[in-house]
Amino acid sequence: MLGNDVSKLARAIEPCKRVLQCMRQQKDVLILHTREGHRPCTSDLYVEKKRRSGSTLPTVIGTDGPKGRILIRGEDGHDIISDLYPKEGEPVIDKPGKGSFYATDLELILRAQRITTLLVCGVTTEVCVHTTIREANDRGFHCIAIADACASYTDKFHESALEMISAQGGIFGSVTTSEQLVAAFEAHGGPKTD
């Protein structure tokens, strides 16, 4: 509806599946899923964000789309795609903003589980992924962006966002690929589940 080439986002699906499959085989790894969306009443939607979402297009957050109201929790279009759907016990963080820490209990969950390193995948690289990594970095977490398991509508934005993460010796974190990540886990003993 926004006129973006969603096939570019689909490139991240298979790498995300590889990472999920590998992490689901590890012991003591917490898998979290996030999704941006607002309450059905839109009481958590800032007027400015709603205005920006429809400033040049007729698609405004909360209006009807082909899969329900746009960016509204509980609508079909707000759900996680079936290829990457959470399994039982994998928390879903519903966030009203771009970053996964903003107005959520993500930090509480991570601190309670004594997690210090985050592997970050998703879309879009330059918006939600980057914002989440910056927020995590400011909170003292080490972040690793999985380059091929992230995607953007714009290749240049994707590449630039990844470069910014690892610039200056890793100012916001590290960058790797799904193949490198899986190979590293396999090299250290393979699956760790009972």
CATH T-level fold name of one domain: Rossmann fold
How far the N terminus sits from the C terminus, by CA atoms, comes to: 45 Å
Q: What does the radius of gyration come to?
A: 17 Å
Looking at CATH, the homologous superfamily of one domain is Isochorismatase-like
Task: List unreliable stretches of 5+ residues.
Answer: none
Order of strands across the biggest sheet?
A: 5-6-7
Average pLDDT value? 93
Listing every helix as H and every strand as E from the N terminus to the C terminus, the arrangement reads HHEHEEEHEHEHEH
Topology:
Blueprint: H1 7-10, H2 13-24, E1 33-36, H3 47-53, E2 64-65, E3 68-69, E4 92-95, H4 106-112, E5 117-123, H5 125-138, E6 142-151, H6 155-170, E7 174-176, H7 178-187
Parallel strand pairs: 1-4, 5-6, 6-7
Antiparallel strand pairs: 2-3
What would you note in describing this structure?
By secondary structure, the protein is α/β, with parallel strands linked by helices. The protein has a domain at 7-37 and 86-187: Rossmann fold (3-Layer(aba) Sandwich), CATH 3.40.50. Helices cover 36% and strands 16% of the residues. The chain contains 7 helices and 7 strands. It has a 3-stranded parallel sheet, with helices on both faces. It has a two-stranded parallel ribbon with strand order 1-4. The radius of gyration is 17 Å and the shape is globular.
